[in-house]
């Protein structure tokens, strides 16, 4: 019974308002109640087993508790019910009231109420990432742990709240540690455990209790009164619990493939509906087609929207469905705006405007002959210009290897490369508007764009103009388009009918690692585990292109500006600007490193030659940025420009490592991890390329460090990570004079380029 209750405590959904029409559409099975109190209950949910899709999952059945006014919908069996706040069909989300765990010290006694665990693997629910794990109290540490999507992968997160400086914290302040703290939860969480590992609230007379809760992100804001009194927070702010969020779907199944027969228990039974695979965990959801709304899980549940009638009833719909000065006629899944006599289309297909006045018609009539001649002349000139422009595009397409690209695509059966026209690129970027510029580097301009299918992309205008390298450019498109790694920005296509070829990549929304570390200094501190996550994912991506593809690909421009972060702060390596292994003369090399100051290894300065070990050296500098939050070339306390790699080598030899590290990661519990990370950096920064590790070795060591760091946080017995590092022969330059000489030469060249 307790396990069933705990399952229900974490069944939760984020409310999402579904677009509705003034007409009352049925959302429940015929003969079943649409609501319980003020809460709508849409099918496949229902009040009682006979009104719910229990053939898909028994947890779709709810009860309606009429002992309250208004009545309240519940998951479970009374008296241990969980109250439902709301349910959404469109996004497969809703919310319920969840319990709050607490630990109290009262009169030398301690009372507890723990959330001991739950399992969701037999339910249609998965804990949503819209929740935060939040802790309230003084000098208290709670841990949250669980497994994800029925796997053995363990998710552990902690939250520590302290009260030093509490007097300076105002009500409404974010939960960053003073009085309260919060942390995110992993996606696809199906098993859960919350425990308290430290509670010193007893030494704070005004704060006898600490609280921990899984709660909808943004619901809780700090209030000093929450720390006062026995169970004060629960009694004052959460008497019915706190809102908890979760996702639901039709689990243990997926959308039928095109042409495949739907299974007997297929849930998308309404005409004018379609199936989409769930974004969180396995399963699928049903949605009404565009121009229809209602309940796609019911027969005839998706009804046509009468856009014309909506325009009459509410002025807001006139902007949503425009038809000015015309006659609106509803059609299945849409509407038509037909212009009245005396009006004409305004060019938008959804509006009309009056024709010219009589005076204007007279002027036009008198000038008709002249206008006709001019129009025909202009039309002829335009045709000639279009023909010339078309020939130029065809010539550029051939020069840029377009015909060879088509031959390669047919011979290799490649279907992942989009060949876009210049007009499609201009439309996507609003004619290369400055508002869409994402960046400007040594290899070209990058624009944000939106394709016709509403997919957001990043479009790069390359500076390639060497005719000898156009055949190699085609090969690079074929190779890069077949790279499929979760931590590499994917190449989607190209445009070849212009003077300079353009490449189309997937768009990554959360900016660069450089901005995350150095520009947004006012943001919250960056924990060590997040830094290790970004480092490991970046190393795995570089190791993949070095050794896991059919042809070795060098990046050649590894730096924090070329590592992008998505919304979940996953690393995405981008911009293979110098991905070809080649020698360069001095001028070409200087042009390359102008955007890579502080990252080029000493050997490359001498040989003007890039190799896979050049990427390793540059990645070592990126690791230093993650450890220190200093730029590759930074200004020190004496206002002098210094190379971060050179300074780090000196301080490592002088055993002054703590002085250069970011203070956010310098604490005794993790210094063993930081020390091992510093040794990896020293190995990457070896003056000789042969003495540097491969990117695969670096990635493996970083993976071990992540596990070691998790052990330090959770204080579990050490695993084989210690033995792994004891057995590694980490290279530390013994002749610092030789290294300093080469680094000084490199720094002088970098400073000279800056000038």
UniProtKB/TrEMBL annotation:
GO terms for cellular component: plasma membrane. The keyword Glycosyltransferase does not apply. The keyword Signal applies. It comes from the Eukaryota. Residues 432-705 form the Protein kinase domain. It is found in: Membrane. SMART domains: EGF, EGF_CA, S_TKc. It is a single-pass type I membrane protein. Its main location: membrane. ATP binds at residue 461. PROSITE patterns: EGF_CA (PS01187), PROTEIN_KINASE_ATP (PS00107), PROTEIN_KINASE_DOM (PS50011), PROTEIN_KINASE_ST (PS00108). GO terms for molecular function: ATP binding; calcium ion binding; polysaccharide binding; protein serine/threonine kinase activity. One of its GO terms (biological process) is cell surface receptor signaling pathway. InterPro entries: EGF, EGF-like_Ca-bd_dom, EGF_Ca-bd_CS, Kinase-like_dom_sf, Prot_kinase_dom, Protein_kinase_ATP_BS, Ser-Thr/Tyr_kinase_cat_dom, Ser/Thr_kinase_AS. Keywords: ATP-binding, Disulfide bond, Glycoprotein, Kinase, Nucleotide-binding, Serine/threonine-protein kinase, Signal, Transferase. Residues 1-20 form the signal peptide. This is Protein kinase domain-containing protein.
